[in-house]
Amino acid sequence: MPKTITLLGSTGSIGTQSLDVARMHGYRIFGLAANSRVEILQKQIEEFHPEYVAVVDPAACEKLDAALAGTANAPKLLKGPEGLRTLAAMDGPDVVLNAVVGIAGLPASLAAIESGHDLALANKESLVTGGHLVTDAVKKYGVKLLPVDSEHSAIFQCLQGCADRREIRRLILTCSGGPFRGMGRDEVGRMTKADALRHPNWTMGPKITVDCSTLMNKGLEVIEAMRLYRLPLAQVSVMVHPQSIVHSMVEFKDGAVLAQLGTPDMRLPIRYAMTYPERGENPAPPLDLLNSPPLTFLEPDRETFPCLRLAEEAAEAGGTACAILNGANEEAVRLFLAEKIGFYDISDLVAAARATVLVTQTPSLEEILSADHAAREAVKSAFARRHS
Length: 388
Ligand code: NAD
Ligand code: MG
What we know:
By secondary structure, this protein is α/β, with parallel strands linked by helices. It has 16 helices and 11 strands. Helix 2 (38-48) crosses helix 3 (58-68) and helix 13 (306-317) runs parallel beside helix 15. The termini are far apart. Strands 4-3-2-1-5-6-7 form a 7-stranded parallel β-sheet, with helices on both faces. Magnesium ion is lined by residues 149-151, 221. Residues 9-15, 34-35, 37, 56, 84, 99-102, 104, 122-125, 149, 202, 204-205, 207-208, 266 line the site of nicotinamide-adenine-dinucleotide.
């Protein structure tokens, strides 16, 4: 039976690929949400006829309202972060797919779960900042949490049939190594925004692409895996795998290692989250192992890429430490994308925020959001001090 979906973050990289999957399989779209790209949203509305559209940026919302005036069967518009949460909670879809970037996705993830919706989650920052709130709510409301991030989808696939999580010895997250793999610190320190945005294997939004170049993305994914599978840091390891064909692995206590392989195409994990527990048809060319490069695995370089270590330290510290790490990183990446800071300023600013903002254990949503705010302020004032 065709699914009905609410898609949050529809104008982004995951959002548009999710609509490719919806188009291919004839899914109905109940709601769409985005921050500000009105022209893309308008085209999506014309094609998919959603009943509701949430636009977070107020000026963009007014622009869309004006553009839709007089249109027959125009969707009802919801405005601001409140509109995003309202849409996430609305009855109508079989599944809510959260492809918003950043901690802005956390309240929407919680709203969807608390309204009894299954949640397909690409927004890793929800789990990094509010992991215990998300997983506790999933348990309380008896809904499914379906990972879209390719590594976590790979692990989810490898764990089908594993009834007892105590059988897991460790999860092995693979990592392309990013565009600066193999370079030394001096060379990496000279890398610019344009260099960081050139990812070797995946095309993604700008924030996650920069996170891939610093290895913060892998650090966030370590935390995401710990929260999703309720495992300590000691049971989540990272291996650099430059070919991005093995999407992640699970090592069991008897020594068996299961891996999920495929071509790098986010539509596979998106589709699996939509069709789970079944598998949908995929018209893309299959993985051609006979003509693939040799599959290689390396230890990540935590000296050249300190963000991975910073994330692992935050994971150990627990509580709001991960929200502080994430908020500081979001702010530092914003400055890097605005070409106001250099590559190693990102990790320096994150470390500065972690050193100054106090950590609270078992935080509420309000405490997580205020830790995020404090971390952003710490980054802004460290940046201002350097430039005064
Ligand atoms: P993107 O920048 O391409 O798109 C982000 C989407 O979020 C856009 O639709 C934008 O309008 C919306 N958005 C931005 N700020 C918002 C706000 N404050 N409130 C509501 N909506 C807002 O990002 P992306 O690459 O599609 O990534 C989305 C999420 O998926 C991220 O958490 C990322 O880490 C995760 N993810 C992405 C990929 C990938 O291949 N792109 C892979 C794995 C995980
Ligand atoms: Mg990933």
